[in-house]
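Why should sequence recovery work at all? Because a backbone constrains its sequence more than one might expect. Tight turns favour small or flexible residues, buried strands favour hydrophobic ones, and helices have their own preferences. The token representation captures these environments compactly. In the example below, the structure is given first.
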């Protein structure tokens, strides 16, 4: 009986030892796994800390870059606003210059039209004078156009006797023909210029060539205005003496050409002058 009890107790002890060891091993394995997981978590936490540090550094870098970019953008905006202000000024100046250019172009076109009309008027006047004086020879008078003016140069043998300021019959015929043209041309200015040769003159009537040239021009003006009705407001006499020769005064033929009365007709330039102002 005693032996049986000892055997039973030994068997129970052995069984109890077996259960405790299994639990122990199981618990130990759990502990080791927990330690492993803890180490892994610690390592992960370490990595997370490093990553967090790097992210913080990167974030700070981005913040600095963003702040600098903001400053640059504000500077660019300031520059852009300044440039836009200058651009507005330039656009305004450009518009002003374009307007001025348009005005100038219109003025130029208007001037060109007026000049063209003036040239046509001069040409028509030239043709009318030539037609009116067709019956006179080139020794008596010449009709030319120069610088927008029509010149009728009448020799002294057509108009005057030597040393005289009295217009003879043939000269009056020429002036009558010319007056017919002038009376139809109310918008022209007429200048009568007396010219002499270089031979001095000193008579009871004329003190010198100046005197002779002026009185001859006045005689022509008087006939045109009083006898043939040319408007005195559009005609003007002047004397040039011997100072504007067209030929050599050393020869008789040259002196003859220099003794002349020039009737100069020029279309009025009022409209052109108004535009140029």
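From this structural description, the recovered sequence reads:
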């Amino acid at each position: 009986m005693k032996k049986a009890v000892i055997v039973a107790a030994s068997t129970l002890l052995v069984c109890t030892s077996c259960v405790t060891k299994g639990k122990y091993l199981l618990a130990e394995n759990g502990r080791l796994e927990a330690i492993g997981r803890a180490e892994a978590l610690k390592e992960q936490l370490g990595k997370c800390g490093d990553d967090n540090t790097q992210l913080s550094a990167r974030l700070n870098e981005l913040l600095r870059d963003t702040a600098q970019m903001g400053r640059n953008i504000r500077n660019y905006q300031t520059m852009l606003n300044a440039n836009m202000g200058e651009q507005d000024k330039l656009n305004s100046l450009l518009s002003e210059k374009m307007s001025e250019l348009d005005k100038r172009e219109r003025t130029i076109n208007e001037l060109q039209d007026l000049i063209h009309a003036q040239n046509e008027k001069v040409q028509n006047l030239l043709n009318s004078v030539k037609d009116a004086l067709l019956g006179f020879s080139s020794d008596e008078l010449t009709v030319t156009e120069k610088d927008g003016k029509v010149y009728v140069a009448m020799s002294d043998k057509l108009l005057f006797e030597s040393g005289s300021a009295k217009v003879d019959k043939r000269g009056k015929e020429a002036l009558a023909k010319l007056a017919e043209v002038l009376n139809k041309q109310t918008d022209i200015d007429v200048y009568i210029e007396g010219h002499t040769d270089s031979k001095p003159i000193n008579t009871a009537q004329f003190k010198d060539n100046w005197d002779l040239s002026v009185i001859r021009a006045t005689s022509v003006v008087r006939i045109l205005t009083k006898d043939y009705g040319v408007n005195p407001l559009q005609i003007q006499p002047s004397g040039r003496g011997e100072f504007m020769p067209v030929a050599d005064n050393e020869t008789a033929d040259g002196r003859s050409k220099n003794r002349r009365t020039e009737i100069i007709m020029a279309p009025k330039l009022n409209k052109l002058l108004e535009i140029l102002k």
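A few observations help interpret the result. The radius of gyration is 61 Å.
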